[in-house]
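Journal club prep, notes for RB
We'll compare a predicted complex against what the paper describes. Inputs for the zinc ion case:
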Amino acid sequence: MKLTKPIIRLIDTAITAQKGAYCPYSRYRVGAAVLTETGRIFSGANVENASYGLSICAERVSIFNAVSRGHRALKAVCIVASAAKPCGACRQVMIEFSSKDTELYLVDLNPTSGRKTITKTTVFRMLPAAFDPIASGLLPPNPQNLLRSRQSHRRRKDDRRRAVSRRDRR
Ligand code: ZN
């Protein structure tokens, strides 16, 4: 599989993030990272709790990390674990911020040998017939909804660039 530079960086970030897992109960370490349409990478690891139901998966930590900083459109998601696969809840959360093209990289990392197997798929392929916030009427009936948020990111970035060049001129 030929991987682009941003995807290699995404996978490396998820591998590093896995080291931050807090999993004294399951001892199942998971790292995740997302590449946003704005080109930023955010990561996360699973964080467990003595009250087991309060634990949260690495995928959601990484996505909430990106979204809470204003990056809502995902270009690619990467998960690292032994037999890496997102749970059903995380698949639905990924759909919320994904387009039909959002790539999903599952990196099966053998903790003893360090050997990794990479599987490439898409977020939508992993959850057919997902709950659709647009079809359900919860979001405006506009299939460009995600694209619009991407454009507003781009616009904000352009504004910042313009502000910088104005400052340079002074
Ligand atoms: Zn999950």
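Talking point for the session: Strands lie at 31-36, 41-45, 74-81, 98-109, 116-122.
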